[in-house]
């Protein structure tokens, strides 16, 4: 993300895209910090290899909200393979930025990965409601 | 009927009237609407207690289409009027519903009396990001913008989490502590939201996920809450240092000091041993 706020970021802050749970998801995943209680949760609705719909929610900071909103816009309607490329792009985009943004991106992408894992678990007959992955970094890593 | 649907509609009506108040530049109208929003919040508090006592589940979800952004005060006013009228179809004959309906008949007549002079456009959503009371450079505007988004969500989250805990309070200390914390957060939410409206970036805080308020480990929740209050203090201090305008800087110093006492209240709550889910 850019250092200064532009109109696009303001829109994501005012109206985060794809925010909230989905009904009858095919995969649900959580990335969370046990230490701080922060979490991101992703809901996927996939048809074969296509992400037909996606939703997310978080109690994290504004960077997490904006990154989640941007990422869901990037991958909605795309294939799971494309989503892996989009995740790499997002990582690259924040890699030069503050540590705090990198931690937020990690939480967003970890939750997405967890949702993909849960999708596979469900397709193999599991009745697990969600897959959770704990992460080490926190949003508040940088003063 | 008192159920989760009624709760959702009351939650939305509280927000509708509160954000109508935040968006309105007219000082006396703003105050009157805010008083009404506080009446709506009290209804919500009583309703949550009744639902909890009757073992009826409820949540903080909102309708997907629910929003607060309108072109004019009149449009927002009409939305509030329509919502109150349809809400009344959900009320039963219980004393609480009778009280709520009675309050809202009065609120409705006030809102209807405002519709004639309500055509002016809102500036609260124009995204200008200019602070009208003092010149701020881009860095200061950005810092203030991010702070307001962050903290307005946190205050909304705290109001609802503490309300959830208040319905489940097991001692007088829990009740009075959560009541105090809710009142403090109302003041902060109002202050920050009115600043957002002045900057043209007023927005509804995002919806709370149940993981935020369905708490298994209260001690851990309180300890995390204390760390969050410390972080909020740090954000206030940082902002106070970035923004050189004396009035704004002193306001954030004032908020910072209030957070310190929240920590004391939360420490007192840490001594509590019996928590209900």
In short:
The complex is a heterodimer of chains A (143) and B (277). Chain A has 143 residues and is an alpha+beta fold.
Protein model, in words:
The complex is a heterodimer of chains A (143) and B (277). With 143 residues, chain A is an alpha+beta fold. Chain A has one domain (12-136): Sufe protein. Chain: A. Chain A is 44% helix and 20% strand. Chain A is built from 4 helices and 4 strands; from the N terminus they run αβββαααβ. By secondary structure, chain B is mostly helical. Chain B folds into 2 domains: 1-122, Ferritin (Up-down Bundle), CATH 1.20.1260; 124-277, Ferritin, core subunit, four-helix bundle (Ferritin, Up-down Bundle), CATH 1.20.1260. Chain B has helices at residues 4-23, 27-53, 73-88, 95-114, 138-167, 172-198, 210-213, 218-242, 246-270. Chain B is flat. The mean pLDDT of chain B is 93. The A-B interface holds A 4-5, 7, 10, 13-16, 19-21, 30, 36-37, 39, 41, 57-59, 61-62, 65, 140, 143 and B 64, 69, 127, 129, 138-139, 141-142, 145-146, 149-150, 153, 157, 201, 203, 206-209, 211-212, 220-221, 224, 227, 231, 234, 238.
Topology:
The complex is a heterodimer of chains A (143) and B (277).
Chain A: H1 7-14, E1 27-32, E2 39-47, E3 50-58, H2 62-75, H3 80-95, H4 99-123, E4 131-134
Parallel strand pairs in A: 1-4
Antiparallel strand pairs in A: 1-2, 2-3
Chain B: H1 4-23, H2 27-53, H3 73-88, H4 95-114, H5 138-167, H6 172-198, H7 210-213, H8 218-242, H9 246-270
Helix pairs in contact in B: 1-2, 1-3, 1-6, 2-4, 2-5, 3-4, 5-6, 5-8, 6-9, 8-9
């Amino acid at each position: 993300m850019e250092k200064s706020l532009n109109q696009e970021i303001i829109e994501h802050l005012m109206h985060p895209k794809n925010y909230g749970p989905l009904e009858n998801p095919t995969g649900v995943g959580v990335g969370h910090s046990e230490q701080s209680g922060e979490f991101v949760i992703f809901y996927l609705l996939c048809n074969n290899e296509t992400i037909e719909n996606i939703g997310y929610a978080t109690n994290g900071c504004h960077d997490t909200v904006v990154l989640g909103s941007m990422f869901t816009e990037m991958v909605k309607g795309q294939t799971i393979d494309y989503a892996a490329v989009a995740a790499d792009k997002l990582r690259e985009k924040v890699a030069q930025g503050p540590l705090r943004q990198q931690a937020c991106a990690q939480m967003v992408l970890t939750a997405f990965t967890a949702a993909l894992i849960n999708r596979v678990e469900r397709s193999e007959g599991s009745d697990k409601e969600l897959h959770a992955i704990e992460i080490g970094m926190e949003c508040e890593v940088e003063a | 009927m008192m159920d989760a649907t009624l709760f959702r509609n009351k939650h939305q009506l509280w927000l509708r009237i509160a954000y109508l108040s935040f968006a309105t530049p007219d000082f006396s109208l703003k105050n009157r609407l805010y008083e009404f929003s506080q009446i709506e919040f009290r209804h919500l508090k009583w309703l949550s207690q009744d639902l909890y006592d009757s073992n009826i589940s409820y949540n903080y979800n909102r309708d997907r289409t629910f929003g607060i952004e309108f072109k004019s005060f009149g449009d927002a006013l009409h939305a509030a009027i329509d919502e109150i009228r349809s809400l009344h179809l959900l009320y039963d004959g219980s004393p609480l519903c009778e009280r709520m309906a009675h309050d809202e008949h009065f609120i409705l007549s006030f809102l209807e009396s405002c519709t004639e002079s309500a055509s002016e456009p809102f500036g609260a959503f124009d995204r200008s990001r200019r602070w009208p009371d003092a010149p701020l450079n881009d860095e200061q505007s950005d810092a203030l913008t991010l702070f307001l988004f962050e903290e307005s969500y946190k205050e909304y989250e705290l109001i609802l989490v503490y309300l959830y805990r208040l319905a489940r309070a097991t001692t007088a200390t829990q009740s009075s502590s959560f009541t105090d914390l809710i009142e403090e957060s109302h003041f902060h939410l109002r202050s920050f939201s009115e600043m957002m409206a002045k900057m043209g970036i007023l927005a509804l805080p995002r919806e709370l996920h149940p993981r935020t308020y369905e708490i298994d480990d209260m001690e851990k929740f309180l300890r995390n809450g204390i760390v969050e209050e410390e972080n909020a203090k740090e954000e206030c201090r940082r902002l106070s240092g970035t923004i050189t305008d004396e009035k704004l800087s002193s306001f954030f110093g004032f908020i910072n000091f209030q957070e310190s006492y929240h920590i004391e209240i939360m420490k007192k709550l840490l001594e509590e041993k019996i928590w209900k889910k």
